[in-house]
Amino acid sequence: MEMAEAVRVLSRHVNDPDGLLYKLARAEGLDHDGYRQLVQALRRIADDWKGRTEVPRDVVALAYALDKAFESFSYAYHGAEGDILRSWAMEITSILIDMFEE
């Protein structure tokens, strides 16, 4: 995936009302395909930014918002869906830690 496409995918799933975060916020259930797209895009971006000493503020803000959103959604879902969402939250956190680790 090219960087420009990764940014578009990430932005769509974070900012678009039809994106993954809005679907989770509206308790529409888990969108496994959307999550896979989001993780693929996030990994692409993280690979590009890993180890940089300067990261644009909007990248940091987006990463923080994404991490906090998944953390809060993990408490809103119960049972099997809650377990899956908590594993998603841990994976997102892990990707972000790797991204900003020196």
Question: How would you describe what is shown here?
Answer:
This protein is mostly helical and 102 residues long. It has one domain (3-100). 77% of the residues lie in helices and 0% in strands. The radius of gyration is 13 Å and the shape is globular.
Summarize the amount of helix as a percent range. over 70%
Assign an overall shape. globular
How many domains in all? Answer: 1
Q: Using DSSP, what is the number of strands? A: 0
* Distance between the first and last residues' Cα: 24 Å
Tell me the fraction of residues in β-strands, as a range. under 5%
Uncertain runs are none
Class of secondary structure makeup:
mainly alpha
Overall average pLDDT: 87
Gyration radius (Cα, Å) is 13 Å
Task: Give the biggest beta sheet.
Answer: none
Elements, N to C (H/E): HHHHH
**Contiguous helical run count:** 5
